[in-house]
Amino acid sequence: MSNENFPQPMDIDDIIKTNDENENYKNSCQILLLYLGRYLTEKEEENVLSKNEKDKTAFFCFKKSAKLGSNEGLFRLGCCYLYGVGIEKNCQKALEYFEKKRLTKDEHKT
Fold first, then answer.
1. pLDDT at position 41, please?
2. Statement: the pTM of the whole predicted model exceeds 0.90
3. What are the structural domains of the chain?
């Protein structure tokens, strides 16, 4: 079977830029990235990815989700920095992301 019928892969940033004006699409991307990141960090069974690869991919997913405005993405990104999941431990960065989450949550209350 030829690959000519399949679309070429796109970078997540390109996909988001292409659909930037579509808020539902942006929200769907946030949710998808969060679920993928959570799946990779919460499941212990073996698969094709090593623990290190799973952690790095989860970090990437949480970072993109946070960039899209997800409060949970900000929190989980802070946790990645706090515990060194997919990135070197950095308590200062962790606090920065926890603070961003807190401020974002406060903004939504008003």
1. 77
2. no
3. 12-109 (1.25.40.10)
